[in-house]
């Protein structure tokens, strides 16, 4: 079963995601003057790409060998669909399950969120767009140089935050955690107990 060091590895990844989101917001709002729209875009989409990488691996935290295997092969994949396929083979339940804020009715209850969050398909779209922004375009390449990213930077941030603010992660060892990423302060991961009814009921064990 997973232990506290596994949870620390996971929450550290989530903390870095929060830091990268904060950096994107500062750049996007003009708090950091980079003197170039191109430099601004590159910094923003570098952070998006790193956020997606931080999302892909941590559910393997309860199995160090599989975690290392994912990291070793990740550099070989530049296509997001292949990355998702590789990680899902190691842990089919790797993708976070977004939850609403907890309610209390004799026990803590979390209701799953069904819209407004970063989906697996959008993960692939954002990863591909980030890769295109970061690669220097061949000046002789024909066609429209515009990179289509589907949402604005602000909308991408919102969808990532909706996915991760409160979420459940299924671990490779069969366990799961409820994870909370507050605006400030420590990221927390709580072990869960399965519920028979829709939603998630949990107590810390």
How would you portray this structure in words?
The protein is globular, with a radius of gyration of 18 Å. The longest helix has 25 residues, at 4-28. It is of the alpha+beta class and 205 residues long. Helix 1 packs antiparallel against helix 2 (37-56) and helix 1 packs antiparallel against helix 6 (153-164). 32% of the residues are buried. A hairpin with a 5-residue loop joins strand 4 (166-170) and strand 5. The chain has a four-stranded antiparallel beta sheet. It has helices at 4-28, 37-56, 64-74, 80-90, 120-134, 153-164, and strands at 97-98, 103-104, 108-110, 166-170, 176-180, 188-191, 200-202. The chain has one domain. It contains six helices and seven strands, in the order ααααβββααββββ. The model is unreliable at 137-146 (pLDDT under 50).
Write the layout of secondary structure elements.
Blueprint: H1 4-28, H2 37-56, H3 64-74, H4 80-90, E1 97-98, E2 103-104, E3 108-110, H5 120-134, H6 153-164, E4 166-170, E5 176-180, E6 188-191, E7 200-202
Antiparallel strand pairs: 1-4, 2-3, 3-7, 4-5, 5-6
Helix pairs in contact: 1-2, 1-6, 2-5, 3-4
What fraction, in percent, of the residue positions are helical? 40-55%
Q: Give the end-to-end Cα distance, rounded to a whole number of Å.
A: 12 Å
Helix and strand succession? HHHHEEEHHEEEE
Strand % is 5-15%
Tally the helices.
Answer: 6
Mean pLDDT over the residues: 80
For the secondary structure, the number of strands is: 7
Order of neighbouring strands in the sheet with most strands: 1-4-5-6
Q: Assembly state here? A: single chain
> By helix and strand content, what is the structural category?
alpha+beta
Which stretches of 5+ consecutive residues score pLDDT under 50?
Answer: 137-146
């Amino acid at each position: 079963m997973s232990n506290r060091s596994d949870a620390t590895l996971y929450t550290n990844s989530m903390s870095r995601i929060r830091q990268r989101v904060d950096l994107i917001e500062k750049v996007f709002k003009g708090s950091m003057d980079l003197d170039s729209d191109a430099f601004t875009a590159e910094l923003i989409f570098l952070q998006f790409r790193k956020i997606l990488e931080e999302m892909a691996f941590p559910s393997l935290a309860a199995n160090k060998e599989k975690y290392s295997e994912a990291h070793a092969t990740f550099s070989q994949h530049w296509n997001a669909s292949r990355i998702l396929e590789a990680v899902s083979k190691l842990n089919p339940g790797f993708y976070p399950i977004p939850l609403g804020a907890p309610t209390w009715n004799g026990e803590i209850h979390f209701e799953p969120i069904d819209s407004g969050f970063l989906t697996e398909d959008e993960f692939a779209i954002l990863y591909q767009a980030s890769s295109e922004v970061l690669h220097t375009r061949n000046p002789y390449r024909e066609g429209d140089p515009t990179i289509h990213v589907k949402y604005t930077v602000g909308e991408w941030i919102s969808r990532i935050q909706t996915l991760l603010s409160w979420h459940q992660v299924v671990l490779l060892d069969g366990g799961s955690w409820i994870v909370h990423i507050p605006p400030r302060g420590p990221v927390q991961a709580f072990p869960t107990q399965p519920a028979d009814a829709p939603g998630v009921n949990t107590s810390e064990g």
